[in-house]
Amino acid sequence: MPLAGNIIERLADLDDVIIVIRRPAESDETLRIERSGKDVDRLYGVALAGEPVGRLTPSSADVDNEAAIVLASGRTLMMEDQAQLPGGSVRVVRLYLPFADEAGAVAGVVVGIVKVA
User: Fold this and answer.
1) Is 88 helix (H, G, I), strand (E, B) or coil?
2) pLDDT tens per residue, the chain (117 residues)?
3) 24: Cβ contacts below 8 Å, ≥ 6 apart
4) 64 is in which domain, residue-wise?
5) Are 53 and 67 in contact (CB under 8 A)?
6) Considering its fold, how many domains does the chain have in total?
7) 79 neighbors 91 (Cβ within 8 angstroms)
8) Angle CA 43–47–52, to nearest 5
């Protein structure tokens, strides 16, 4: 069984590979990345905090739809696609995990992003 210290250290590493998207206050607002981890920023070659979520995929409509599905359903979603990034063409996997506010409504999404090949 892993030691508690090792688990805490590994959880701290998760912060490097996630972005956070919150539900917009207005229904017509663009979904934006509230926070991004350093490994994600390095992968995309730019700090993503404040950027539209459409910046994550070759087709901005894809990631907008993915995030909207998770916000509406409260269910997890995993997607994989080819992305052209500063380091060249890579396969990227995104794992969308919804989180709730105090009332239990979906307030946003944590998205884990990693390069797979």
Assistant:
1) strand
2) 344 445 455 555 778 888 899 888 776 678 899 999 999 999 899 999 999 998 888 777 788 899 999 999 999 999 998 888 887 888 888 999 999 888 888 999 999 988 886
3) 30, 31, 32
4) 4-115
5) yes
6) 1
7) no
8) 100
CA distance 78 to 57: 14
CB 53 within 8 A of CB 77: no
Token pair belonging to 72: 């509406």
Please give the structure tokens belonging to residue 55.
């910046």
- Answer for the pair 106, 23: CB distance below 8 angstroms, yes or no: yes
Q: What is the pTM of this model?
A: 0.83
